[in-house]
Design goal:
Helix 1 packs across helix 9, helix 2 packs across helix 3 and helix 4 packs across helix 5. The strands form two sheets. An eight-stranded mixed sheet has the order 3-4-6-5-7-8-9-10, sandwiched between helices. The two termini are 32 Å apart. A hairpin with a 5-residue loop joins strand 3 and strand 4. 29% of the residues lie in helices and 18% in strands. The protein has nine helices and ten strands.
Length: 290
């Protein structure tokens, strides 16, 4: 990591697989195409998951947190520590969250944040990038995979911002859902001036005051565009935000392509995801080597 003349942290050029950087996290600020600074952390693998898999063939996981989260939240660090047993890990704070710049658009322009993080993750030499999103982040990884596609003719022409496998956990299927009390509270937080004050000072989340214009592609509209990229949809049967019709709708939008895991007793997003589930997701991601 280094500092430019303007005092900003800029991208490090250190290679994590070298002997001098083995095991050393790297933190920097990335810049999105619309000029927002994104606080980001790279954690190298903690051990070789598969001795037959060279470092360059291990995946790197890019973790997209939920609304009001950030890269330093304990539940995000727990996710990162688990996935580091399978490959490299990039965590970052969405715009308006934590130390990142800008204001949250609650899943719209956040695809640009994820694209910047994916490009950075790929720069460390990992051949495959697995995006894993939770709640709002779950909707973002779906839309990102639909909008940043690999060249279907083969590896040539692929952009650095595309994902090679996608995991969406506790995501909504459609926008403007208010069918549960937590979602009605969230809409108050986002749409009301007093709610945005609570978001800023109570949750360290700066929320943009403007409504979506145009309304972005919804998660369920994005899912059919993701194939043939491997897709895993995970949802708890005790999710207090989005009932089970949401994951089922997402899976139905990609018949024969998306894999659906309905987790007994699980609640919502990162906080509710047990370590055993995270390890199963890690196993699934490693098995998707193409």
């Amino acid at each position: 990591m280094r500092i430019d003349p303007a005092g900003r942290v800029v991208r490090s050029t250190a290679i994590p697989h070298s002997e001098t950087n083995r095991g050393t996290p790297i933190r920097t600020f990335l810049h999105t195409v619309d000029g927002v600074t994104i606080d980001s952390v790279y954690d190298p693998p903690t051990f070789v998951y598969d001795a037959s898999l060279s470092p360059s063939r291990r995946p790197v996981f890019v973790i997209a947190h939920g609304f009001t989260g950030d890269a330093d939240r304990p539940h995000v660090r727990r996710v990162a520590e688990t996935f580091a047993q399978y490959g490299g890990v990039v965590t970052f704070s969405f715009r308006g969250h934590g130390a990142s710049g800008g204001r949250s658009t609650v899943g719209d322009r956040e695809v640009l944040d994820l694209a910047a993080a994916v490009e950075w993750a790929r720069s460390f030499g990992h051949a495959r990038v697995v995006t894993v999103g939770f709640s709002m982040g779950g909707s973002v990884v779906l839309r990102h995979a639909a909008l940043y596609r690999a060249d279907e003719s083969g590896r040539e022409g692929r952009t650095d911002a595309h994902s090679d496998a996608v995991v969406s956990v506790s995501a909504p299927a459609r926008w403007y859902y208010r069918g549960t009390a937590p979602m009605r509270k969230l809409h108050w937080l986002v749409t009301r001036p007093e709610g945005r004050l609570v978001g800023r000072y109570g949750f360290r989340t700066r929320i943009h005051h403007k409504e979506w214009d145009p309304v972005p592609l919804s998660p369920v509209e994005a899912v059919p565009r993701i194939a043939p990229t491997p897709l895993l949809i995970v949802h708890g049967d005790r999710d207090g935000y989005f009932p089970l019709d949401h994951p089922r709708m997402l899976a139905d939008a990609a018949p024969g392509h998306a894999e659906l895991w309905l987790e007994h007793g699980m609640g919502h997003a990162e906080n509710a995801a047990p370590d055993e589930l995270l390890r199963r997701i890690g196993d699934w991601a490693v098995s998707q080597d193409s």
